Amino acid sequence: MEVSPIIAKLRTGDEQTFRELVDQYRDRVFNTALGLLQHHENAEDVTQEVFIEVFRSVAGFRGDCSISTWIYRITVQKALEHIRTGSRRKRSGIMISLFGNEDRVNLSANAPFYHPGILLENKERSAILFQAISLLPVNQRTAFVLHKVEGLSQSEISRIMDTSVSSVESLIVRARRKLQQLLSDYYEKNER
Amino acid sequence: MNTKETWIDETLNSLDGIHRAPGPPDLFIKIQARLDHTENKRSSRQLAFYWRVAAGLALLIALNIVVTLYYHHTPASPMATPSAVASDYFSYLSPIKL
C-alpha cells in the first residue's frame, strides 16, 4: 500500500512536517479529548500523548486508513485509557442510588464542565448534558461525542471505531435515549 | 409538549452550534520537551547499562590478570619439573618390575 508523502516525511523524522501535523490536528485532537474527558488539563495531557504516539508509531502505520482516522483512533484510545485509569481511582465519586440502578445516577455528583466552544445561551444546559454524557457506556459516549461535539459524520465515526455505519447509528440512538432518561431523572429531582 | 419534555429536548440540543475548542498554542514545544525528556532518560539509562557492563568486564580482566600473575610468580615445586616427574614415575614403577 502506498504511503502518503506526509507519512514518508514523518518516518524520516522531519521536524517541520511533524510541526505542521501538530498544527493541523491540534484542535481536533484536543476537542475530541476534551469532549470525552471533560477536563482541560487531562485533555491537554492526552493531546500531547497522542502526538508523541503518532511520532513514535508512524513507522508502523500501514496506511490502511487516512491520517485523520488514524489520529482520531489514537485520540479515542488514549482518552479512554485516561477514563479507565481515572474511574478506577475516582469510582467512589459517582453517587449511585441505593437501588443499584446506574440509570438513576445523580447528575449533580460531578463538578460541572463548561465546554469553551458552547454558545453562551446554552452554557448551563450543556453542562448538565455533559454530566449525563459522562455516565454513558464508553462506546455510546465515544460515538455521541465524535458526532455531536466533534461534528463527524457517522461514516467517519465508523472508520474511527472500526465498526459499521449502522452500529454507529444504533450507538447514537441508544445514547440519546439514555440521555433522555438521565435528564428526565435530573429534571424530576430538581423539580423545574 | 409539556415543560419537562421541552427542557429535555433543549438540553439535548444544547450542543448545537458548538465550536471546536482550540488546542493549547504551545503544544508543539511541550511535545518536543516531553520527547527530549524521554530521550534523555532513555540515553542515561543506556549509559548506566553500558557503564555496568564495562565495570563487569574490567573486573573480569583484573581478576584474570591477578590470577595469571599469581600463577607465574609462584615458585615451581621440584615435583613440577619434567625430570622430577619422570624420576618419580619410575620410582613408583620399580617395585612392580621385580
Can you give me a brief rundown of this structure?
The complex is a heterodimer of chains A (192) and B (98). Chain A is an all-alpha fold and 192 residues long.
Fold and architecture overview:
The complex is a heterodimer of chains A (192) and B (98). Chain A has 192 residues and is mainly alpha-helical. Chain A folds into two domains: 93 residues, Rna Polymerase Sigma Factor, Chain: A, CATH 1.10.1740.10; 99 residues, Orthogonal Bundle (Arc Repressor Mutant, subunit A). Helix content of chain A is 67%, strand content 0%. Chain A contains eight helices and no strands. In chain A, helix 5 packs across helix 8. Chain A is elongated, with a radius of gyration of 18 Å. About 7% of the residues of chain A have low confidence. By secondary structure, chain B is mainly α. Chain B is built from three helices and no strands. Chain B is 74% helix and 0% strand. Chain B starts with a helix and ends with a helix. At the A-B interface, helix 2, helix 3, helix 5 and helix 8 of A face helix 1 and helix 2 of B.
Distance between the termini of chain B: 132 Å
Whole-angstrom Rg of chain A:
18 Å
The count of domains of chain A is 2
Shape of chain B: rod-shaped
Element layout with pairings:
The complex is a heterodimer of chains A (192) and B (98).
Chain A: H1 5-11, H2 15-37, H3 40-57, H4 67-90, H5 123-133, H6 138-149, H7 154-161, H8 165-190
Chain B: H1 3-12, H2 27-73, H3 82-97
